[in-house]
Write a structure and sequence with these properties.
Chain lengths: 241, 162
């Protein structure tokens, strides 16, 4: 029996909860709604494009609330790390070494990817509310607050920001492919099931999964969802009383 | 100056040639300036139409549309629409080097372009007449029909910039 076999025998598989259900639903909804927003815009279905944009606003606002009130791995405080940590993590990654943490939740680089994606989406949708099309006939729910010219400028930035969002999504997908191919780490599975299998070597004691993915409470979930949905619907009606 | 220098070096023939080159260059730069002002005026006209269309469609979307606002906006569009083909004189396209969203097809397929422009002018006039009646459902239907004439023409003849 080699040492390696012995080590494998001592190791045990641990299945831990990584992502709570609301966080996973937000992820699915964002993918679906961005796809639909893209499709409706390129097929001249602007009424639907605007409704979908407002729905996406609701989802993103909920995610921001969940970043404060949600489960442990959903909270910004748990994954937004300082530049030193990010640089150290990137260095480790390039050298092919192990990561600093137990591999649960967003890693220090992924955390900033999430913040960038959410930030660009907030600005993209915010600008979208003011857009006017070239004919002056289609317009976002807040376009009546601005001039035709300002609405056209908003439409220009709405397009630029969408390209930036696409670039960030491409980076996101590349990172997933990198972890899958180079690191043999499947990130997609846990995104769907919420669970991740960790191989823990006995005696290593580095992993303490208890409480890591503690869910947010039901009352906070309902309140966050209701407020986000309310703002989204109100936005769709141009914030009119 | 070049003409005089040419006369000194190459005699009168050289002077005439040099003067002709200078005159052509001057004419070309004058033409470029003209095209720039044509494009600028054209864009200003389209923005006037866009502004009026925005004012109209905002009222149509509102729960309590102000009919006089719609009527004023539509009248403005109806006044501008028939002028549209005159905003595209020959030479004011993208080949002039001036930045424009106007595609070469406007001049290459000028019959189709004039046909589309006429469809817009007809739709705008019809909308003006209907708007005077004040029937919101009828105005909405015709506004949509006019919007289609904008879109179908832009599809072929306008470079998307946004």
């Amino acid at each position: 029996m080699t040492d390696e076999d012995a080590a494998r025998r001592r190791s045990r598989n641990l299945v831990v909860r990584v992502w709570d259900a609301p966080t996973r639903w937000v992820h699915v909804l964002i993918i679906v709604l961005i796809g639909l927003a893209w499709w409706t815009e390129s097929h001249d279905q602007m009424d639907w494009h605007i409704r979908i944009g407002c729905a996406l606003l609701g989802v993103v606002l909920f995610r921001l609330a969940w970043g404060v009130f949600g489960g442990a791995t959903a909270r910004f405080a748990s994954f937004v790390r300082g530049p030193k940590t990010v640089v150290r993590y990137a260095g480790n990654l390039l050298r092919g070494g192990g990561s600093d943490d137990a591999g649960i939740g967003h890693n220090p680089m992924g955390g900033w990817s999430v913040m960038a994606l959410l930030g660009v989406m907030v600005v993209e949708i915010g600008v979208g509310l003011f857009c006017v099309d070239v004919d002056g006939l289609e317009s976002g729910p807040l376009a009546d607050r601005v001039s035709f010219q300002a609405g056209r400028t908003a439409a220009h930035w709405h397009t630029v920001l969408f390209d930036i969002l696409l670039a960030l999504i491409a980076l996101h997908l590349c990172a997933i492919a990198f972890y899958a191919i180079v690191r043999r780490d499947n990130l997609i599975g846990p995104t769907v099931t919420g669970r991740k299998r960790l191989t823990v070597t006995a005696g290593e004691g580095a992993v303490e999964p208890v409480g890591l993915a503690r869910s947010g409470s039901a009352i906070r979930l309902i309140t966050s969802a209701a407020v986000a949905a309310g703002i989204a619907v109100w936005a769709a009606y141009g914030f009119k009383l | 100056m070049a003409g005089i220098a040419g006369a000194i070096r190459g005699g009168w023939r050289g002077a005439i040639a040099a003067t002709a080159v200078l005159a052509l260059a001057a004419a070309a730069s004058a033409a470029a300036a003209d095209v720039a002002s044509v494009v600028q005026a054209r864009q200003a006209h389209f923005k006037e139409i866009g502004k009026a269309a925005k004012a109209m469609s905002e009222q149509l979307k509102s729960p309590m549309p102000a009919v006089p606002v719609i009527q004023a906006a539509v009248k403005q569009i109806d006044a501008l629409a028939p002028q549209l083909p005159s905003w595209f004189p020959a030479g004011s396209g993208p080949l002039s080097g001036v930045k424009t969203g106007a595609k070469v097809e406007i001049w290459n397929k000028s019959d189709e372009f004039k046909h589309d422009a006429a469809a817009f002018a007809d739709a705008a006039h019809k909308l003006d007449v209907i708007a005077a009646g004040g029937d919101l459902a009828a105005i909405r239907a015709q506004a949509q029909a006019m919007g289609q004439t904008c879109k179908s023409c832009h599809e072929t003849f306008r470079q998307r910039d946004d």
